[in-house]
Amino acid sequence: MPFNGTVTGEKQTKVTVGWGEVTGHTHDVHCDDMRVEKTPEGFILVLGSEGRVTHQEHKDIVLAPGTYLVKHEREMDWMQKTVRQVVD
Hints:
With about 90 residues, the chain is mainly β. It has one domain (about 10-85). Helix content is about 0%, strand content about 60%. The chain is globular. It starts with 9 loop residues before the first strand and ends with a strand.
């Protein structure tokens, strides 16, 4: 999801943005020019060059340079009236 704002996070070349509790697989973002800021909802990533999302079970996803907000999906359990993070 695109994000408009200021990011002062540290420079990194790889960050894991998703973890599979059942499979142990990860979604990793790789970029030679990336700033990363952790937020309560997930991450803000600023890519200064083309990046890639990698995962063990599917092909890489190419990301154009830009700023992205990565949120972890949640679901509502209407029977228990609770919100929980979706797990794979």
